[in-house]
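Have a think about this chain, tokens included, and walk me through the fold.
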Amino acid sequence: MTLLKRLAATLLLLVTLPALAHAACTATNNTEYSAAIAHGHAYTKHSAEFVHGKVIDGLAFPDPTIANADEFATFLLGIMNAPTESKPLANNRYAYWHTPTGTVIITNDNANDCGTAFRPLTGKAYYDNLS
């Protein structure tokens, strides 16, 4: 590859990467956030935490096992609409805490899947330390 072609390829990469790096959430309400989070990485990565009786930080998951991303979205929407606590975070993020299930939801307007949801190993302390 000639030097000119290498420079052109590098320039194209430099122009393209920032656009790819700034994928953003398009959700505008709790229903859209919960669906995006449930169908993003959160369910795939954390579904084993939402099994009836699964103990995390001394709390057994009290609800029936969440069997798919659509059920997960419904579960998350319930928390977002009536959290035990919630607070704004830095960088266009927002956190929700649900004491009965030990679940934290973090919406993130900078992420293409709009955030995450899981049951932190340190429970409420995890939520309390979010900023």
